[in-house]
Amino acid sequence: MASALPATRAFGWKPYRRFRELILVSVAGHLAVAAFYGVYCGQVLIALAFGGPALLVLGLFPLAKSNVPKRQIRAISHLVLLVNLGGLLLGLMWTGLSASTTVWWLVWWPLFVAHLIGVLDGLVWVMLALLASVVLWSNDQHHWVQPLMNRQDNPLQLLQVGFLLIGAAFGLVVRRAHDVYEATIKQQKRTLEDRATRLENALQALQQANLDRTRMFAQISHEVRTPLNGLMGFAQLLGHSTLTPQQARHVDQIRHCGDTLLQIVNEMLDFSRLEATSTEPDRQPFDAIQLASCAVDMVASIADQKGVTLVRDFPIETLGAVGDPLRIKQILLNLLGNALKFTASGEVHVRCCSQPMSDGRAGLYFEVQDSGIGIPHDAMPQLFQPFSKASDNTIQQYGGSGLGLAICKRLVDMMSGSIGVHSEPGRGTLFWFEVPLSPAV
User: Fold this and answer.
1) What is the 3-state secondary structure (H, E, C) of 184-213?
2) Residue 29's Cα: distance from chain center in Å?
3) Do residues 327 and 281 touch, judged by C-beta distance below 8 A?
4) Beta strand 308-313 with 346-356: parallel, antiparallel or unpaired?
5) Euclidean distance between CA atoms 368 and 426, whole angstroms
6) Cα–Cα distance measured from residue 431 to residue 87, given in angstroms and rounded to the nearest whole number
């Protein structure tokens, strides 16, 4: 596929395409005056002065449609118009008319250039038109150019009619270009409005479909959890009965699979609930150190089975605060569960303390650091996103739903806190989060 042309090499120049009739009016006016002087008055030189340079203006059409840079098009246009102006001045001097009569023809040049090329260019041509007027007035006094006709031989009335016709044509062309441009803008505006409306409707439909999917997801998760709890209860009852060693192993496997499945269902239900509804965090007094210790105790059996040491790093014995202890414990359990899942041996450090947040507010700070496999650097940006590629790879190798960190991120955001991670592949991972909490009274 061919690459797009740069902005300085666009196909054509929009002002030339918009005011192409203006070029035709200008050339036609010069040629009409040239034909009149050449045929009716028999003044060939005057006709050439008026018509010859005007034909150069027609070269702007193929030039504007070429791939010549705009800067060069503008320079060539000014040069062509200067030659045309020079021919006009010479022709007017040869007619023998006074400067007070011929100077009015110069009024079209700034208008022509301003519409065709640009406003600043038109201002430059105001100065050039004034300079040309000075040349005409000075020629009347110094007679630098000898006239080829007598003043009375010029059909002044016909020239005035031509002047009026050119002015009318100029006005009609500009008005038509304005109307076409305005109609184009209105059409583009309507098209953009229709497109915006369609996109907004599509976005609303997508949001509604996503909300319906989330609600259905939560409902299914809830319905699955009810019979699963019953299944786990009967498996526990079966484990208390007299079983052979093989049957006992089978029951343990059922309970292990059921626990894993129940954890996945619970995570899906939590995530769906957070997506579907906006929940306000609770505000109640609690002991942050006791809460962290409770979370560590809940995963202690898993750590013992894997031979991983849980290290509690609590600088003080109690830390009273006001906040949402249930949500904070949920975050800690998720982070501790991940740390134990990815740590085959070694230690998992849990830290809880009070320290100012990054924005200066008083808050609680938690860390969960493991000595496990670590996280690849390319997976870090999507780590807290649900169903990311990193989650897919983890699910395939270690199981789970891939929603634990996404739930942590939403819970921390709900409490106006922050969460982050530091990790090196093969050297462990440190998850931290902080939430703003008021000290307990």
Assistant:
1) HHHHHHHHHHHHHHHHHHHHHHHHHHHHHH
2) 50
3) yes
4) parallel
5) 16
6) 82
* CB distance 250 to 258 below 8 Å: no
Helices 156-240, 108-116: axis angle to 10 degrees equals 20
Percent helix, strand and coil across the chain, each rounded to 5? 65, 10, 20
Distance CA 140, CA 138 (A): 5
Helix ranges restricted to H, 106-244:
108-116, 119-142, 156-240
Chain centroid to CA 306: how far?
Answer: 49
Asked if 397 contacts 354 with a C-beta cutoff of 8 angstroms, the reply is no
How far is 21 from 27, CA to CA, in rounded Å? 10
What is the phi/psi pair of residue 307, to 5°?
A: 75, 30
The backbone torsions φ and ψ at residue 358, rounded to the nearest 5 degrees and listed phi first, read -65, -25
The DSSP output letter for 103 is: G
The whole-angstrom distance between residue 368's C-alpha and the CA centroid of its chain comes to 37
d(CA 249, CA 354): 46
Q: How far apart are CA 402 and CA 384, in angstroms?
A: 9
What number of H helices and E strands is found in the chain?
Answer: 15, 7
Token duo for residue 345: 């041996």
Give the burial class of 95: count Cβ atoms within 10 A of its Cβ; 0-12 exposed, 13-18 middle, 19 or more buried.
buried
pLDDT digit of tens for each residue in the chain (441 aa)? 333 333 444 334 555 656 678 888 888 888 988 998 999 889 999 999 999 998 888 887 777 777 778 788 888 889 999 999 999 999 999 999 999 989 988 988 898 888 888 888 989 999 999 999 999 999 999 989 999 999 888 988 888 888 888 888 888 888 887 788 788 889 999 999 999 989 998 888 887 776 666 666 566 655 666 676 677 776 777 777 877 888 877 777 777 676 666 666 666 666 666 665 566 777 889 999 999 998 898 888 888 888 899 999 888 888 888 888 888 888 898 899 888 888 888 899 999 988 888 777 888 899 999 988 888 887 887 788 775 555 545 544 544 456 778 888 888 888 889 999 998 888 889 999 999 877 444
CA nearest to 264, candidates 385, 390, 401: 401
Alpha carbon distance 33, 168 (integer Å): 16
Output the pLDDT for position 220.
62
Name the 3-class secondary structure at 403.
coil
- Would you say 104 and 163 are in contact if contact means Cβ atoms under 8 Å apart? yes
